[in-house]
Amino acid sequence: MKTMARPIRETPILFGEDARRFREAMQNVKPEPPEVRARILRDYELMKKAYERGMADQRAREDANGGVDPWFKKV
Hints:
mainly alpha; flat
């Protein structure tokens, strides 16, 4: 029998020094530099355009083939 994935384990509970360090790290989050944010947004827009173009191509193939995309017939 083939399984798809293993179950996700529970998130561990932190105690003592580990909990203190984690809480301190969460309270002292440093914002990312503007250059990093600009790069992330640029990459996001690039991927968004690629997705939209791919979906437009898929819709065009479906329109040309009576609602079926021949690229994904075997899936």
